[in-house]
Design goal:
There is one protein chain. The protein is an all-alpha fold and 207 residues long. The protein has a domain of 131 residues. The chain contains 8 helices and no strands. Helix 2 packs antiparallel against helix 6. It starts with 19 loop residues before the first helix and ends in an 8-residue tail after the last helix.
């Protein structure tokens, strides 16, 4: 069974928690996570420059590898976590809280980004774990990953909050509209269509 099927509403919002603190934590203005993650990435790059022996060339390569890896993670989290099989009541509730509510109220601007507290926690855990595996390389790789995440947030916010432009960037609006309003089982990439093409989820499958 796929995720809960909901009818998108063009306005409104929904309270997820009766506890006001928890409810507040599910909402954020888009500027908050963008400032946090661009600053986090800049801080890590500064540390890389001042405290490691990584060359500018290697730093640049690792940065863009980190960005590319993020697009893969974005695709897979969206496809397999946010759109998990909702075959039990608990899974249906979890899936709706994480992502289903966004499909029901796609214009709710306060819920277009993961709460900063959760995002910062995940980023810091990644830093600590990847430091053990990658050593100093993490200070060039993780900034690319975080900039990829911030870019995803920016694109996701724009395609929901603004009308599409009359240029090639309109593709982002078109792709995400297909996912929201036509078929939620395809077009999982938001900041990049790359992995949809690679995994065959860019278009509807033939019957």
């Amino acid at each position: 069974m796929a995720m809960n099927v909901v009818t998108p509403k063009n306005s409104g919002t929904k309270q997820l928690f009766s506890n006001p603190v928890l409810e507040k934590l599910t909402r954020t203005h888009i500027s908050v996570p963008l400032i946090i993650f661009f600053s986090y990435a800049a801080g890590l790059l500064y540390w890389s420059i001042t405290h490691t022996s990584l060359s500018p060339w290697l730093t640049t390569v690792l940065f863009f590898i980190g960005w590319l890896v993020f697009t893969w993670v974005e695709y897979n989290v969206h496809r397999y976590v946010f759109h998990m099989r909702a075959d039990t009541e608990k899974r249906r509730e979890l899936q709706y809280t994480m992502h289903g509510v966004h499909h029901e109220f796609p214009k709710d601007k306060d819920r277009l980004a993961m709460p900063p507290v959760i995002s910062i926690t995940i980023a810091t855990v990644l830093l600590l774990l990847l430091r053990l595996v990658m050593g100093d390389f993490v200070f060039a790789f993780l900034p690319g990953f975080l900039v990829g995440y911030a870019s995803y947030l920016g694109v996701h916010y724009m395609v929901h909050a603004y009308k599409p432009p009359k240029n090639f960037l309109k593709l982002f609006w078109v792709n995400h509209s297909i996912h929201h309003y036509k078929d939620g089982a395809i077009v999982f990439g938001v900041s990049s269509p790359l992995w949809d093409y690679i995994y065959g989820t860019m278009k509807e499958k033939s019957a």
